[in-house]
Specification:
The structure holds 2 protein chains of 2 kinds. By secondary structure, chain A is an alpha+beta fold. Chain A is 22% helix and 34% strand. The chains are: A alpha+beta, B mainly alpha. Chain A: It catalyses: ATP + H2O + polyamine-[polyamine-binding protein]Side 1 = ADP + phosphate + polyamineSide 2 + [polyamine-binding protein]Side 1.
Chain lengths: 375, 302
């Protein structure tokens, strides 16, 4: 079985006069695992439904391989789908569920039996043939749903938040499991999720959607390290935003003053968004929790960045790490999160303690202050 | 907020049980008894006692024995009526199913506005008196009724047809009256089938017809059985409509029993007839349920 590429060209979708998907163009390579990531209402599920054929776009085109499937009936698309709640047929056994697509294609019983038993092996459900879906655990139902979607060997598999009904531990197991099966069969996967961690773990590429638009498409590392907008920066991974003011630029370096720390200004390399910034305008300085270095006190002269002074507000133990919430003067309500690996024997910080946070310019991203944005 | 004793770590059992405690399960036995007491009293005095007396009466007249039942068996008239009752109930059930299923399906699947309109059309007859609806059929079907007048005017017939007081008229009128009882359970069953199942089926290659035949129909069967059973049982004991539309020549069990109690005042024999009808109905229901429970797939559906 081989995956086929998907080309989405200028898709628009309105429900009534409400625009749900606006001008989305996206190419998925054959065999690629692409996640559509976004908060609820971002249009990602609607986009998926249009690929599956349960919704039709107002304009635009969807192609799988060389076929235009934009207005094709769902049962003629050869696009597999795993539904959020699995949608297993409750009146059929596991075996009958998995065999359903082959029955619909009127294959010989012998062929059906052979392929069903192969597939049961692939998803590790051998022995459960005669069970009914309601007699299976959530994870097993998930496997049946994947098996059923893949048995007719569709070139494309769509998954609509398939793991959202499972608990955390099982979800992680199934993530690896889905990746393993995908690698085995080579199908192109479009995976809808609102869980950024899941998207980062599983995807070859992630397409971030917000309010019906595609915000950024890139590899997980790309998105994490080079978010194109503050929405992506905030949605993918954890991000601190410091309030600041743009001071000026010369020869490709930019100077930003962090609010409440009037004397602190620093140089910052910024990739190509210069037009948006004018001296005196408000900016958001973004930095990941793991990129901040925290000490009781930095010796002057031993600094490779700017140092902000603050008060520890809370220390949260996560297992492999601690998150330390630090309130920085002049930064308003939201404390800065600092991620510190929990090493044996290393002293943590206490609530109320004064600390220094060091921020390296290379770890910082700059975004314009959004009109009407909170933070 | 109440601070409960579970400030320590509550056991997983306690956590698991909590979501269920909002239901009737958490009511004490006493409270449950108090809640159902009015119904139990009403059923006891208003239903069980008189019906029991009527049924038992059939075994004690003139003295203890099966005299009344032997009388019933001796006369072919009574057996004919019993058989006819079952025939007509069966015909009404089938007719209601054939007419009702598409309507129920439409109610569940149409866009909201149309579904609401259909629902109203189904429910309005249910809110109208059975008596009125039965008389309406007389108006339509009688010798000089609407149907005959129309057919005569069109010149399709030269003599008025005998439409009323036939088995056909009884089946038609009873189907009309009982249709909602078939439709509503089917509607509930079809509505309970998640939309994604149909989508999944068509995603997996099933055409519209296959989706219906392989998914929607099997999953709506519990509703079909419930609706049919309800209609069948109601039809077996139906009194008003067959009495008005059927006349003396298409007498059914209920009419016969009514005659025995109000005209001949033979309560013992009425009791015997009732016993036979009740026994036949119960046998039928039990047999029906037994057949259903043998079908495994429905265990998790209904």
């Amino acid at each position: 079985m081989n995956g086929e590429p998907i080309d989405i060209l200028g898709i628009e979708k309105q429900f009534g006069d409400k625009s749900v998907v606006s001008d989305v163009s996206l190419s998925v390579k054959a065999g690629e695992f692409l996640s559509l990531l976004g908060p609820s209402g971002s249009g990602k599920t609607t986009l998926l439904m249009m690929i599956a054929g349960f919704e039709f776009p107002n304009s635009g085109q969807i192609r799988v391989g060389s076929r235009d499937i934009t207005y094709l009936a769902p049962n003629r698309r050869a696009v597999g789908m795993v539904f959020q709640k699995y949608a297993l047929f409750p009146h059929m056994t596991v075996e009958q569920n998995i065999a359903f697509p082959l029955r619909m294609r009127s294959l010989a019983t012998k062929e059906i039996n052979r392929r069903v038993s192969d597939m049961m092996g692939l998803v590790q459900l051998t022995g459960f043939e005669g069970r009914y879906p309601q007699q299976l655990s959530g994870g097993q139902q998930q496997r049946v749903a994947v098996a059923r979607a893949l048995i007719a060997e569709p070139p494309v598999l769509l998954m609509d938040e398939p793991l959202s009904a499972l608990d955390k531990k099982l979800r992680e197991t199934m993530q690896t499991e889905i990746k393993r099966i995908q690698n085995r069969v080579g199908v192109t996967v479009v995976y809808v999720t609102h869980d950024q961690e899941e998207a980062l773990t599983m995807s070859d590429r992630i397409a971030v959607m917000s309010e019906g638009r595609l915000v950024q498409v890139g590899s997980p590392l790309d998105l994490y390290q080079r978010p194109a907008t503050s929405f992506v920066a905030e949605f993918v991974g954890k991000m601190n935003f410091l309030k600041g003011e743009f001071v000026g630029s010369d020869h490709g370096t930019f100077r930003v003053r962090i609010s409440g720390h009037a004397t602190l200004s620093f140089d910052l390399v910024l990739n190509g968004e210069a037009e948006q910034y004018r001296p005196g305008c408000r900016v958001r300085v973004a930095i990941r929790p793991e990129d901040i270095i925290i000490r009781q006190r930095f010796e002057p002269g031993h600094q490779s960045g700017i140092v902000l002074r603050g008060t520890v507000e809370a220390v949260i133990f996560l297992g492999q790490a601690h998150v330390i919430l630090v309130q920085i003067e002049g930064q308003g309500e939201a404390p800065v999160q600092v991620l510190v690996p929990s090493l044996i024997g290393q002293a943590t910080f206490a609530r109320g303690e004064m600390v220094d946070l060091m921020i390296a310019p290379s770890a910082v991203r700059l975004f314009p202050e959004l009109a009407g944005s909170v933070q | 907020m109440t601070v409960t004793a579970t400030i320590g770590v509550p056991s997983t059992e306690a956590i698991r049980r909590r979501p269920l405690t909002g239901s009737a399960r958490s009511y004490s036995k006493t409270l449950s008894l108090i809640l159902i007491a009015p119904l139990v009293l009403l059923m006891g005095f208003g239903f069980l006692y008189p019906v029991g007396k009527l049924l038992l009466g059939s075994f004690f007249a003139p003295e203890f024995g099966l005299e009344q039942f032997q009388r019933l068996m001796r006369s072919p008239l009574y057996l004919t009526v019993l058989l006819r009752t079952f025939e007509i109930a069966f015909a009404v059930t089938i007719a209601s199913l054939v007419i009702g299923y598409p309507i129920a399906f439409a109610m569940a699947k149409l866009p909201r506005r149309w579904a609401a309109l259909t629902t109203v059309c189904v429910l309005i007859p249910l809110w109208t008196s059975t008596l009125v609806r039965s008389y309406a059929w007389i108006v339509l079907l009688q010798r000089k009724g609407v149907v005959n007048a129309l057919l005569l005017d069109l010149g399709w017939i030269t003599e008025p047809l005998r439409l009323i007081y036939t088995e056909g008229a009884v089946v038609m009128a009873m189907t009309h009256v009982l249709l909602p009882y078939t439709i509503l359970p089917i509607f509930a069953a079809v509505r309970a089938v998640p939309n994604e199942l149909g989508q999944a089926a068509s995603n997996l290659g099933a055409g519209t017809l296959s989706v219906f035949w392989r998914i929607m129909l099997p999953l709506s069967l519990p509703g079909v059985f419930a609706g049919c059973l309800m209609t069948f049982i109601l039809a077996l004991g139906f009194y008003v409509t067959p009495a008005l539309v059927g006349g003396p020549r298409t007498m059914l069990m209920a009419t016969l029993i009514g005659q025995q109690t109000t005209e001949t005042l033979d309560w013992a024999f009425a009791g015997a007839l009732s016993t036979v009808l009740l026994a036949a109905t119960l046998t039928f229901v039990v047999a029906f349920r037994k057949t259903l429970s043998l079908n495994r797939g429905f265990a998790g559906v209904s």
